[in-house]
Automatic annotation (TrEMBL), chains A, B:
SUPFAM superfamilies (alphabetical): Creatinase/aminopeptidase (SSF55920), Creatinase/prolidase N-terminal domain (SSF53092)
Domain of life of the source: Bacteria
Official protein name in the record: Xaa-Pro aminopeptidase
Keywords assigned: Aminopeptidase, Hydrolase, Manganese, Metal-binding, Protease
Reaction equation(s) it catalyzes: Release of any N-terminal amino acid, including proline, that is linked to proline, even from a dipeptide or tripeptide
SMART domains: AMP_N
The species this protein was found in: Dactylococcopsis salina (strain PCC 8305)
EC number(s) per entry: 3.4.11.9
Co-factor(s): Mn(2+)
């Protein structure tokens, strides 16, 4: 581990702690977690600390705990063992780490039990660590959706902080995005008829790995963009296919980027692909145009729905009055997910808290088709970073569903839709920061105009 | 998931079940496990089923359980939910999977509780799944090292089976190895002065990813080969450095390969690097020469120790009589690990069972310096696959240790050792199958002769 040596790193962490202390006056303990093992203990997945820990401690420290108390930071972790130095080389000591992150005190992990008091905490997803938390605090720690009292107060205080990113966070997201952009460009160049999805994915992820970064989430790289969370890479690319690539690097400090581009295998969109691409792009542009502090994110979602519905009516795929179609969620037939989500230390930021971060107090998920998948329903605020990712998909599980056919059969012009069979899935996704001037697209240097995409494909 | 459609897949699985039934007459339940989450539930690491499950079920099925009873196979898993089909696309049903793996019966997961009876099992490393196992069997399942009765009998029966690979397993290891070999070649070509370890690693892993495979373990790609389990990739390669790359792909069916090569950044070994490389290679060749059914693996370890000790005496680094030096573990100063380990579905095969698989009944780890790190102490048998991986390292934690200096100070010619400061770490590792004819090197098509390595580097 290379320790950062600039003062601004420490100042950022200090500021976060002090801000927390302004709204939360009790003691908090945050666990970092441990690397899950891949079948046997010596073979682990790459460790990634809990995001709440990372937010205040800044470093990806395994098996560590921090205590936050009135702006004061105490670190609990063990020094590297002689065994770990023998096998893993020299590592910074607890005191060196404490000095780097500006901890006021530092103790071995075994001391933690003497400092727990009545601390609040947030549960870790790993069951083993969660049980350590419960044992240490001598109580059953509720899941975030069930949290009450000081635990809930801590969650709310942290949400308030993490909803608006500070300069350091934005810098980290930009760094992650800049690598993701190069990665996507490599993917567009690598995609050729006859290659496999796995080969394109490898070209993309190689760039991220070459920058010594990891992916913030499992990459989607597929000619079957209609499979929204596609996790397989086995298809061979054919001329006429579109590749949907949803890939984002994570910065050194753990901040996520999240970008989707859809591009033609042979370097040229077909006329039908062009029509739908431009429609999705129009929705994307309209949404970004609307991003500004104070704007309700749900309205941006509806903005996408409106543009998509109008476009599909113009293309003759949907039939009827646009407002009626929107009212009956006809757009969700082809755009079944939300227009985006919070972006931060998690790609779906703070989703470990259920909907507590994504949904403003008092709000909850809709029961409506499509709208129920919206992950964010809050007013935007300065420093908030969200994805904007409208899409169009022909999902068999939706379009062939009997009850869907009964409800929506009449408003779809199936014959016309058949003409668009070479458009299985298109999504265009950027990372957008709400600023006092409106919107800053952090991923803007990766073009999304149709002709620019064709140029990047460079066949 | 693409289901395999050949009969030999099913026949292999059936044969494994029947062989188990020959030595284990009770009922066994094996859990596959689940993908650990990366901070929040929707962001998971890539799922890898437990190896014992995979051995008998053949497919990487998440949240599944198999019952093995007198050669009969029952599968417990849920059909894909409508939600998972909407987001993840069409997936094979339970019945399709059951037909593919030749299961006699198949039930939803919820039915499992009605079929547990007095079954034996092997605990899963994931704590959440482990607790499901205990709950389901209504007893506290001991860790393998504490297992007794039917659990221990099951473990022993499975070890007996998995120690000797069948044809299908060997074919899978060969497939994994063939991709690893291409990956290593790409790494040798990519390494140039000024590039980073991360860039070389990305060139290597890209090949594995492009074949739609994963790594069997975290790659080691470093100019600091003396850090035995180096997990960082931040150094810049300089002319004169050696790169140590320990990288292995895992086959579609989950079988591991494990290869190490050490090569010069500038394409040419220095005279001192040559001396040590040839010494490690001599140990490597001598060990492989000795692999055959009936040979004690520990003797192969000592063979490596002997060649290394002789070589270091010849180079003037160690001083004294070879037998005396071996008796005092002087070789462990520079070769502190074991000469290799079992290779199979796990890169350290069956290491989830502690030393039960690696050590023959009645044997246990030595207390001796270096020898205590030997992972395998059994007689080789036909079908057993092991790594052969001698090495030479200048580990600061060993060589600068005060008590080491006291004990070994006299037998090291420190001045002479200083001349070899450009040899921080060298390891040469191949995967070797014991056959009735002796040894088959499954990774032989990746050369390890010094001049061939220089040719592959192709500067």
């Amino acid at each position: 581990m290379n320790l950062p040596d600039n003062n601004s790193f420490q100042a950022t962490l200090k500021q976060r702690r002090q801000k927390l202390a302004e709204t939360f006056s009790e003691k908090a303990l945050l666990w970092s977690g441990c690397a899950p093992s891949r079948n046997f203990p010596a073979n682990t997945f790459l460790f990634r600390a809990s995001s709440h820990f990372l937010y205040f401690a800044g470093l990806n420290l395994e098996n560590a705990v921090i205590e936050l108390d009135s702006g004061k930071l105490t670190l609990f972790m063990d020094n590297p063992s002689p065994e770990s130095i023998l096998w893993g080389g020299e590592k910074p000591s607890r005191d060196q780490i404490a000095a780097t992150i500006g901890a006021d005190l530092a103790y071995p992990y075994s001391e933690l039990k003497n400092y727990t008091g009545e601390a609040a905490t947030i549960p870790i997803s790993d069951v083993g660590i969660y049980q350590q938390q419960c044992q240490c605090l001598e109580r059953n720690i509720p899941q975030p959706s069930e949290a009450t009292g000081k635990d809930l107060a801590l969650i709310q205080a942290i949400i308030t902080l993490r909803l608006s990113h500070d300069e350091s966070a934005i810098e980290q997201i930009k760094q992650a995005a800049s690598v993701s952009i190069k990665a996507h460009q490599a993917g567009m160049k690598a995609a050729q008829p006859g290659k496999t999805e796995a080969e394109v994915r490898s070209a993309i992820e190689q760039v991220i790995m070459a920058h010594n970064l990891t992916c913030a989430y499992g990459s989607i790289v597929t000619v079957h963009g209609e499979v929204l969370h596609n996790e397989s890479y086995s298809h061979t690319l054919e001329s006429g296919d579109l590749v949907l690539a949803d890939v984002g690097a994570e910065s050194v400090g753990g901040w996520a980027s999240d970008i989707t581009r859809t591009f033609p295998v042979n370097g040229q969109f077909s006329p039908t692909q062009r029509d739908i691409y431009d429609l999705v792009l129009a929705a994307h542009d309209a949404c970004i145009e609307n991003v500004a502090p104070g704007v309700e994110y749900k309205d941006i979602h509806w903005q996408a729905a409106q543009v998509i519905t109008e476009g599909l009516v113009n293309l003759g795929i949907l039939q009827g009055n646009v407002s009626d179609l929107l009212a009956m969620d006809a757009h969700s037939l082809f755009f079944p997910h939300g227009v985006g989500h919070l972006l931060g230390l998690d790609v779906h930021d703070m989703e470990d808290l259920g909907d507590l971060a994504g949904y403003a107090p008092g709000r909850q998920r809709s029961e409506r088709f499509g709208l129920g998948n919206l992950r964010l329903d809050r007013a935007l605020q300065t420093g908030m970073t969200v994805t904007i990712e409208p899409g169009f998909y022909q999902v068999p599980a939706i379009l062939n569903d009997k009850s869907t056919r009964e409800k929506y059969g009449e408003i779809i012009n199936w014959e016309q839709l058949d003409r668009f069979s070479d458009v299985r899935g298109i999504r265009i996704e950027d990372d957008v920061l709400a600023t006092s001037e409106g919107a800053a697209v952090l991923t803007a240097s990766l073009p999304c105009q149709r002709n620019q995409i064709e140029e990047l494909c460079d066949r």
